């Protein structure tokens, strides 16, 4: 049994901490990554891992640094690809309007701050870890990193999707950069 961490969101005020855990808005990244993104890539979220350290009692994730998820959008909403990154340090660069140049995703520049709490492993919501909600396959799912429920908030990202975006760890639970994305429809 794996513990899960629920993610609740609220729209950020104008003067929020740019290093906060959030969906969309202004990513704060390491300076070395500045030129390291594709033209079709959008900023999805960043998680300051110290924000979840007390809730991650099984140590599934590092407890320092930042976890980032960017999305390749070249295939449109139904063929997104994950670019998951980890940085063990404090980011030096904030990039305003990161999503503004990607056609169809320009409106996802408002930040939505994350709040975390412990929940049951299979609860149907946006969350870290646990087991995927509504997993309808005979095979056991890969290890869940993040489950995003588009109907769980007012962000309006993929709100036409009745289901979930699942981000799974790569080849093992230590493989963040090899993470994969599965779109699951109810």
Write a structural description:
With 186 residues, this protein is an all-beta fold. It has a single domain, classed as YwqG-like (Hypothetical protein YwqG fold, Roll). It is built from no helices and twelve strands. The strands form two sheets. Strands 6-5-4-2-8-1-9-10-11-12 form a ten-stranded antiparallel sheet, with no helix packed on it. Strands 3-7 form a two-stranded antiparallel sheet. The relative contact order is 0.23.
Concise synopsis of the structure shown:
The chain has 186 residues and is mainly β. It contains no helices and twelve strands. The chain is 0% helix and 34% strand.
Q: Helices and strands in order, then pairings?
A:
Elements lengths: L3 E8 L10 E2 L4 E2 L11 E8 L17 E7 L8 E7 L5 E2 L17 E8 L7 E3 L14 E5 L14 E6 L11 E6 L1
Antiparallel strand pairs: 1-8, 1-9, 2-4, 2-8, 3-7, 4-5, 5-6, 9-10, 10-11, 11-12
Element-level helix/strand string = EEEEEEEEEEEE
CATH class placement = Mainly Beta
Tally of alpha and pi helices:
0
Arrangement of strands in the largest sheet: 6-5-4-2-8-1-9-10-11-12
Give me the CATH fold name: Hypothetical protein YwqG fold
End-to-end separation in angstroms reads 24 Å
Average pLDDT, rounded to a whole number, is 91
For the largest beta-sheet, the strand count, sense and barrel status come to: 10 strands, antiparallel
Within CATH, the superfamily carries the name YwqG-like
What coarse outline follows from CA principal-axis ratios? Answer: globular
Low-confidence stretches: none
Number of domains: 1
Q: Helical percent range?
A: under 10%
